[in-house]
Known about the structure:
By secondary structure, the chain is α/β, with parallel strands linked by helices.
Amino acid sequence: MNREFDSPWKETLENYLPDIFEILFPEAHATFDWSQGYDSLNSELPTLLPDSESGLLRADGLYQLADSDETGGISWVFVHFEVQAQQDAQFPRRMFDYFKRIQDKYGDQVSSYAILADNNPNWRPSSYQYRNRRTRSTFEYDSVKLLDYAHRLDDLTTHRSPVGLVVAASIRSLLTHGNAELRFADKCRLIRQLFERKLADDEVWNIMRLLDWLLKLPDELREEFNELRIELFQEYQMPFVTSFEEIAQEKGMKEGIKLGEERGTNFGRRIGQIQAFEEVLSLPITPAEELLAKPLDELDRMISELKTKVIR
């Protein structure tokens, strides 16, 4: 997957799986019993899908869902998701490899889905075929082309779930490649539509981060966009700094645990805050290793300066 799409799509699948199914795979969505919830198995992917001869296997999502049959019975199935952001002749083979590895561990109840997020409208892989003189096999999987939704942007941006904005941003990212002014206009429109939904603060932040990842702007337009964003926080009377500091604190505590006992959560909390402020300001993220080399008072100074930029 293109790195521009990697993190936002993995996070979107993790947090909005039912809505992604409803928007992109509506027939499949109707067969699952979402009242049963679902389990993410993404933490098992690194050991389940190591390197192989067909390339580096890094699946985008693996989930366990409740599938309902015509009699009302429930069976648990395993759903594998891939988002492919560039044309690749080996992609169908990798889909097959993923399927086989997952099936080997979990059994026959495995379904595979591909979201094709590339810019070639004619590239539409949905199967892998193997044959030699005496043996042949065909593996088929469901796939959807994001470009097919380019004429349905209004439906996406007004969908009951805010994840429709994320799908729309993915499409506009493709269509505005090389046109910074048009991308800026699209991003401003999407961020305003996000605020108009009047969602809970944490969900606004989550979707906003995804939009930032997908619709990256050059430096000269990034500051102008941040000014608009701050105006929207004021217009909709959202506790901009308070809400963000809570998110930064949570990120910081997680960072502190990840950094281990060497420097402790005091450093981790500050590093998490700095990186979170940099993220919302669309600034380059300072590596944790670089921040670890700084004294605490220097980290506090950086936090203060970043906070000033946020509220300015």
